[in-house]
Structure to design on (1089 residues):
């Protein structure tokens, strides 16, 4: 059985998750995540083709909200936690690309 | 001193004017001042707000106004529940400096019931852990034995109740984070049915598993607190459209005819024999009280751990994406927004949180979803089915809460070994059912043992009845509350 | 995983490209001919009071960060709750395009971007609320609608320094007022075969959205945004080649230009042996080109999974039937209705334009009151495309057209009277005509003018009387012009023609 996750996988996942890992951390995480995924082999091996997935404990449907305005935050409250704000807006450093 | 110590007794004494809320809160603040340095149950002690709230209660009682069922009773709140105007940290650097502009629904309900919040309790960062050693602000110690962990992730809330800092506290339970520390600290801890208690204002770890629940020194106190916080909340779309259940009024009805099943899969391999023995003793006590006790099989519980460690990290990886240094909390400066996000998250999250974000991101990523997340969601169906089948034959189930009693700080370094702590508690979260831990005797070292009582969804009433019988039959413990 | 043998859409259905007699074909430098295959994704902001998942107001143009609450800002601990009206509006759209309105599930689309408060977007993924609809364009061409799903909008960034563009900016400022505004993303099948069809599709979609109260459809405010998925293939072939997604198309005019540019770019690339890369491209209005934004290779892996904070939405057949029954008459049905009444084809420009402007009810009411259908349409299309024109009471229009057809007003006079009627809702056609001195010339007065013109042009008159049809036609124009001039425009064209015919025969 090949290892479940390679060092390259770990590096790729870190990029997706916006985390920066040093060489040592990459090694540690590769080993640790590998061990956890190995443990999950029991689940991976089950034949569950006919079993529906459960994403929710209960079969609730149509939990909806009336289209009525509720309270809003004042701009001061909204920006109170902002690491940097300017002109009523949240300030961020240069953005390198358009949204996907 | 023979001061009343349970929440119910305190509430009665305050309502009757026998004691003032101010006096009660001062007594608890004094206890905190005396022992908190050695325990570290709190991230924040809100002494001033507590005194003000107690004064309000005393004023209301003096004026003859109606007060809530918890009027004047001190409560500690896990620091992943949002409190308006009081820092809420999740024991993480990444939320440094953040003060929520709103209260969690359960915090509102506590206030409406007259409870007095004395502080925000320590936890494993973002509730990820089983020892409270993963807190960015240092570990909490077990009041029963300061060299040992209190369990986690709600270790601070369990310790606060065990140490007498407050008779009640709130925790959150995603895979055992209330029940396991309750067992380790020798207190009662309840994971209610998913959807019974609002999650609005609970900082999410794994949304489909998280549930807020009570800690208390007695089963009756836990029932009262659950009744206060339970019930539908329109701000949480997964909140069940049901009123709070009536538990307390049936608490003393006994278990005659109640069908109790001991889960055979959770009584053997990997379980400390001393704990299994206490579970059998609790089962015998139930039988002696008139319950029909059998052993039942719930085969899929053995897959719970694997499924959980795919599902919970997957949801967490998404829930924790919002911590990026843009809108609140920590920011680590960097020339571009993307680099700033990476630097902030890298510096702001601890190793266990990173590990789970990585694991969850991987489990959801293209090409692996079906093998990991998708497969785990199917296992969830299996577990729910097996529980449902078992509940055809019995009303409640019984098992150990934890495979071992409290371990020493620093004793477990390997993540997977740490995860095994949750073997007995995880299946209930996956099924969305209810379960609670009741202290029942000790192991040979004198450390508390927790017996887990499990019930189907919305089976809180019979679950508490069984728990009350187990509690009444529990052997006396030398380190317990006011001996 | 193995690659599917048949290309499929997001719902797993085989991709079909519609045929059309209007296909954009571009000729590459080497003379090879390439035809357009295009699908459109339209994001429409829904006309709700509040946001998709919270009670913060859904309102455009307010001061930054005023329409936000803890949910909008994605504050820790907050939870979404679905806006019922957004669901109803999505279902209304489904019914309007003859689609299936089904049980739907929200998912999380995970990617990091500063204008997205949670760094995931709640969207419907594999179980959208609307599937399998169709839209008939004014030209009669039918474009399939693969799906329409509900999702939340993002905030907006303003770039400071670097001329306000993202590239070269020193820093950016984020306003989350738009974050969480309900969006309906409407995905067409690749059935759009020409730039004109794309224009008609978006215009038709907009009329439906506006007519049904689903969206205000304002492209200029960004409440309707269009992305085009474009590929080309050898003329007459049935291949499917790599497509590019074109974003930042902010008007119908840009859409037409962007499609034409991109089809040519791809055709030239294919013809010269190059490879079209699957990527997102940005339309730049100023240079009239598309520019690469990012290639799909480096695209985020969105890690979709079911949104655990929400439960499925299932309106049920009964509620959907009620919604369908309450729909207003839709543009295509209105075109057919107007066509039936006026005798024009449904594709006639006058019919299409009248319905597009929403003036068909006005026209039909005037016709219903006995006014000539042809003249009514002419006036609506030509003379009522002004401010207030659509508000003119049908009674006034009918009255005017009746005066005109009775010969009491000339076409020129009618136009002038109409302008007065639009400006003054209290005025009547007869009153305005009288005030302007537009009284029908009596036959005697007209006859003397006609006689005078004949007398002044004896040679032409002789030719007129003796000439063949062609000559008569030519000279009839000459005489009518002279008579009009002599009458200072007061003569009625039909009466003049009648008199000329009588006199030449007599």
């Amino acid at each position: 059985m090949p290892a479940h996750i390679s060092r390259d996988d770990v590096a790729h996942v870190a990029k997706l998750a916006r985390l920066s890992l040093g060489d040592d951390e990459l090694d540690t995480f590769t080993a640790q995540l590998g061990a956890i995924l190995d443990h999950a082999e029991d689940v991976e091996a089950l034949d569950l083709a006919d079993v529906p997935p459960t994403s929710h404990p209960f079969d609730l449907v149509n939990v909806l909200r009336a289209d009525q305005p509720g309270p809003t935050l004042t701009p001061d409250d909204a920006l109170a936690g902002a690491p940097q704000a300017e002109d009523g807006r949240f300030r961020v450093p240069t953005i390198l690309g358009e949204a996907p | 001193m023979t001061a009343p110590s349970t929440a119910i007794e305190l509430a009665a004494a305050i309502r009757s004017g026998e004691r003032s809320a101010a006096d009660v809160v001062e007594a608890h603040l004094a206890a905190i001042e005396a022992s908190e340095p050695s325990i570290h149950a709190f991230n924040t002690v809100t002494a001033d707000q507590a005194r003000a709230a107690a004064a309000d209660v005393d004023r209301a009682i003096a004026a003859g106004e109606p007060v809530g069922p918890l009027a004047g009773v001190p409560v500690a709140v896990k620091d992943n529940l949002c409190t308006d105007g009081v820092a809420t940290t999740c024991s993480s650097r990444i939320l440094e400096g953040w003060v929520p502009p709103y209260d969690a629904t359960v915090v509102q309900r506590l206030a409406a019931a007259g409870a007095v919040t004395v502080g925000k309790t320590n936890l494993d960062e973002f509730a990820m852990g089983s020892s409270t050693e993963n807190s960015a602000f240092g570990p909490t110690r077990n009041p029963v034995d300061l060299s040992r962990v209190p369990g986690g992730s709600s270790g601070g809330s369990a310790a606060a109740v065990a140490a007498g800092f407050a008779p009640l506290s709130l925790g959150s339970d995603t895979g055992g984070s209330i029940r396991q520390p309750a067992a380790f600290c020798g207190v009662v801890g309840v994971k209610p049915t998913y959807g019974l208690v609002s999650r609005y204002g609970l900082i999410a770890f794994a949304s489909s598993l998280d549930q807020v629940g009570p800690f208390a020194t007695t089963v009756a106190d836990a029932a009262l607190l659950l009744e206060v916080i339970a019930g539908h909340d329109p701000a949480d779309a997964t909140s069940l459209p049901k009123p709070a259940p009536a538990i307390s009024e049936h608490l003393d009805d006994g278990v005659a005819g109640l069908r109790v099943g001991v889960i055979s899969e959770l009584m053997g391999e990997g379980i400390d024999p001393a704990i299994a023995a206490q579970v059998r003793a609790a089962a015998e006590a139930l039988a002696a009280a008139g319950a029909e006790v059998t052993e039942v099989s719930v085969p899929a519980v053995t897959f719970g751990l694997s499924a959980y460690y795919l599902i919970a990290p997957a949801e967490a990886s998404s829930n924790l994406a919002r911590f990026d240094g843009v809108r609140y909390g920590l920011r680590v400066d960097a020339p571009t927004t993307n680099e700033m996000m990476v630097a902030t998250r890298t510096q702001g999250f601890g190793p266990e949180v990173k590990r789970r974000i990585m694991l969850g991101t991987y489990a959801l990523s293209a090409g692996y979803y079906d093998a990991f997340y998708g497969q785990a969601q199917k296992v969830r169906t299996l577990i729910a089915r097996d529980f449902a089948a078992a509940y055809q034959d019995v009303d409640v189930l019984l098992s150990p809460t934890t495979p071992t009693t409290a371990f020493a700080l620093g004793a477990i370094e390997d993540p997977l070994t740490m995860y095994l702590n949750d073997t007995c508690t995880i299946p209930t979260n996956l099924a969305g059912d209810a379960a609670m831990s009741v202290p029942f005797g000790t192991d040979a070292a004198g450390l508390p043992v927790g017996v887990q009582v499990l019930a189907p969804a919305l089976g809180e009433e019979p679950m508490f009845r069984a728990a009350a019988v187990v509690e009444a039959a529990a052997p006396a413990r030398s380190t317990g509350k006011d001996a | 995983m193995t690659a599917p043998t048949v290309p499929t859409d997001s719902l797993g259905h085989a991709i079909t490209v519609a045929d059309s007699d209007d296909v954009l074909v571009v000729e590459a430098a080497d003379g090879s001919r390439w035809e357009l295959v295009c699908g459109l994704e339209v994001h429409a902001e829904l006309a709700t009071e509040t946001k998709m998942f919270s009670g913060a107001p859904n309102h455009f143009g307010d001061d930054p960060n005023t329409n936000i609450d803890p949910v909008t800002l994605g504050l820790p601990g907050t939870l979404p709750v679905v806006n019922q009206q957004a669901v109803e509006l999505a279902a209304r759209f489904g019914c309007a395009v003859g689609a299936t309105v089904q049980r739907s599930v929200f998912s999380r689309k995970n990617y990091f971007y500063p204008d997205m408060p949670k760094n995931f977007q709640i969207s419907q993924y594999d179980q959208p609320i609307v599937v399998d609809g169709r839209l008939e364009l004014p030209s009669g061409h039918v474009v399939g609608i693969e799906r329409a799903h509900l999702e939340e909008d993002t905030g907006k960034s303003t770039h400071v320094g670097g001329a306000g563009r993202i590239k070269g900016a020193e820093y950016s400022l984020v306003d989350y007022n738009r974050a969480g505004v309900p969006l309906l993303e409407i995905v067409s099948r690749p059935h759009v075969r020409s730039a004109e069809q794309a224009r008609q599709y978006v215009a038709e979609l907009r009329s439906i959205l506006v007519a049904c109260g689903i969206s205000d459809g304002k492209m200029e405010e960004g409440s309707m945004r269009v992305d085009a998925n474009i590929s080309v293939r050898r003329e007459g072939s049935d291949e499917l080649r790599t497509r590019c997604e074109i974003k930042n198309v902010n008007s119908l005019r840009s859409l037409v230009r962007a499609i034409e540019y991109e089809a040519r770019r791809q055709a030239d690339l294919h013809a010269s042996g190059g490879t079209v890369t699957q990527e997102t491209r940005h339309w730049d209005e100023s240079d009239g080109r598309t520019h690469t934004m990012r290639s799909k290779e480096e695209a985020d892996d969105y890690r979709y999974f079911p949104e655990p904070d929400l439960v499925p939405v299932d309106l049920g057949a009964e509620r959907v039937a009620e919604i369908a029954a309450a729909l207003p008459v839709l543009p295509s049905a209105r075109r057919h209705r107007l066509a039936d009444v006026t005798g024009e084809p449904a594709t006639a420009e006058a019919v299409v334009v009248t319905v597009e402007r929403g003036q068909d009810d006005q026209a039909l009411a005037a016709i219903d009151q006995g006014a000539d259908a042809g003249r009514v349409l002419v006036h609506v299309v030509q003379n009522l495309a002004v401010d207030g024109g659509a508000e003119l009471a049908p009674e006034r229009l009918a009255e005017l057209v009746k005066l005109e057809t009775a010969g009491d007003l000339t076409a020129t006079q009618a136009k002038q009277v109409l302008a007065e009627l639009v400006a003054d809702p209290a005025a009547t056609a007869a009153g305005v005509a009288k005030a302007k001195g537009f009284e029908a010339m009596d036959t005697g007065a007209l006859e003397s003018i006609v006689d005078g013109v004949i007398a002044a042009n004896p040679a032409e008159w002789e030719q007129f009387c003796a000439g063949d049809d062609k000559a008569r036609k030519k000279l009839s124009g000459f005489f009518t012009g002279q008579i009009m001039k002599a009458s200072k425009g007061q003569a009625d064209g039909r009466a003049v023609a009648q008199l000329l015919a009588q006199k030449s025969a007599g």
